[in-house]
Amino acid sequence: MSTTPENIAVAESAPVAGAAPVAGAAPVPGQRLLTGKVVSNKMDKTVAVSVERLVKHPMYGKYIRRTTKLLAHDENNECKEGDTVSIKPCRPMSRRKSWVLVRVVERARAE
């Protein structure tokens, strides 16, 4: 294969393998995207998101509701308690925080 300027230009414009995605970028197809409810926003640039899932009981077959509390990075401190948000995984930012806020799906109603 020859190294003509056209081939070099194509190679330079190709994405770098293993490049880390930008925190606020759109999710990559096939990437894990979870939806949950914000239960705490008392930290700076961090929200606690409660994610619910249904698990089938091994013996009885009944579906049981399980919750997981995850810490997510909220760069602009835009989330309030009660908001429904989408989060995606990212590099570890602290001991427990390895998720980043993608978008606010629904705002909490003001009471």
What is the CA-atom radius of gyration, in angstroms?
A: 20 Å
Low-pLDDT windows of residues: 8-20
The best one-word shape is globular
Cα(first) to Cα(last) distance is 67 Å
- Main β-sheet description: 5 strands, mixed, barrel
Helix content: under 10%
Q: Please, what is the average pLDDT?
A: 84
Relevant terms:
mainly beta; globular; 111 residues
What would your notes on this structure say?
With 111 residues, this protein is mainly β. The protein is 8% helix and 43% strand. The protein has one helix spanning 5-13, and strands at residues 34-43, 46-56, 63-73, 84-89, 97-106. A five-stranded mixed beta barrel has the order 1-2-3-5-4. The radius of gyration is 20 Å and the shape is globular. It starts with a helix and ends in a 5-residue tail after the last strand. The relative contact order is 0.21.
Short description:
With 111 residues, the chain is mainly beta. Helices cover 8% and strands 43% of the residues. It has a 5-stranded mixed barrel with strand order 1-2-3-5-4.
Task: Give the arrangement of secondary structure elements.
Blueprint: H1 5-13, E1 34-43, E2 46-56, E3 63-73, E4 84-89, E5 97-106
Parallel strand pairs: 3-5
Antiparallel strand pairs: 1-2, 1-4, 2-3, 4-5
